[in-house]
């Protein structure tokens, strides 16, 4: 469940933020923006009497970012230079781990996210929300007027692709708040790309997600980090999250997709051997055998990729053994249909083979999923 907390400015005059706030800002070559964002955060800090810290998680920019933080002279701001596992999402996760205060805020350094909205995010947590997003797409939220159609369409498509994972209107936002205790309880976080909020919503199983309207401003200094590579990483990230939330269905869908490729291989081998003039019983068996090998390799690499570091020969023998019943069903159905039902007509043998494949597919999936590639057999 998601909730737009307010479409109007919230009166916070009577609210005291006694708990400390850790603001995590991932950076890469953002030295020009650091003085401006620190100045705005300091103005907010003094106006609201906030206890806070700012952690810049810098991916070894070497552009003067370290010097810019030092020159600002704020004892509540520090920078951590990261030299390994660089990337926006890992930087945020590492920053959350290093944070000292019970409330965590993530925001960009390019001033697209207004620091002045931080009290509204924290208020959302105080009003029983588990996770609060600074949203462009709830009533009261907006973007700069010069957003082009391509940029809007890109955001729209990314949001639609994430809709089965969450009903949040702006899951692409990088401006959000959560409790440190909820983050510390999270398990199996492995974000890739730049959509760490989506990772946390799904992996932490958050149901009560609030959205605070913000005005999203285009950056004034530096260059955007949103590249084609980052967008491709988002697709990879989505696959991981779908596998996490809908594991059974996703394993089956991927297995069926690989099985469909096996159908092509099966029919191609069968048809080629028929043209050569080999006996039909041999053609059926050869098509099944070759497609079995290709299915094993593709399932090991993609469908059950968590198990691909295990010994390949042992897995292949297990795959063949587990698929034996499905192979027998496949062959028996195909041969029976060919001899008793589809005796004449063009492509009779191919139609019989398709029926056999469909009959054996269910047996093959159960054997592969719960015997050969069962997760508890994989070394950690």
Mean of residue pLDDT values: 83
The count of domains is 2
General form:
elongated
Write the CATH architecture name of the largest domain.
Answer: Alpha-Beta Complex
Q: Which structural class matches the secondary elements?
A: alpha/beta
Helix content: 40-55%
Looking at this structure, what is the CATH superfamily of the largest domain? Spore Coat Polysaccharide Biosynthesis Protein SpsA, Chain A
Q: Per CATH, what is the topology of the largest domain?
A: Spore Coat Polysaccharide Biosynthesis Protein SpsA, Chain A
Q: Tell me the strand order in the biggest sheet.
A: 1-9-6-8-5-2-3-4
The oligomeric state is: single chain
Cα-based radius of gyration, to the nearest Å:
27 Å
The CATH class designation of the largest domain is: Alpha Beta
Q: What's the tally of helices?
A: 13
Spatial separation of the terminal alpha carbons: 34 Å
- Residue stretches low in confidence (pLDDT < 50, at least 5 long) are 7-16
Q: Number of DSSP strands?
A: 10
